[in-house]
Design goal:
The protein has helices spanning 2-10, 15-22, 26-41, 56-65, 71-79. It starts with a helix and ends with a helix. The protein has 80 residues and is an all-alpha fold. The chain has a domain at 2-41. The longest helix has 16 residues, at 26-41. It has 5 helices and no strands.
Amino acid sequence: MKIAAVLRTALGADRSLVTAMLGFTETTVRTYRDGGIDALKQFEVGGSTSPLDAYPDTLRAQFTQHPAASLKKRNLESQN
């Protein structure tokens, strides 16, 4: 998506149209365009977290004691 933004603006597409199509802000598109390949290589993920992040040991123990099964395996077991 980043390269699409840069390519479309480089080919003369209106920046506001590109931002609307791809969901980027104009500042983001400008950063990608002006920052070159280094800006395009950056991968930044938002900071959303899960409430379950507070319980890694409990979750690990639960899945160790009760491992998840594939749907195929579960269906075969339920037929017996």
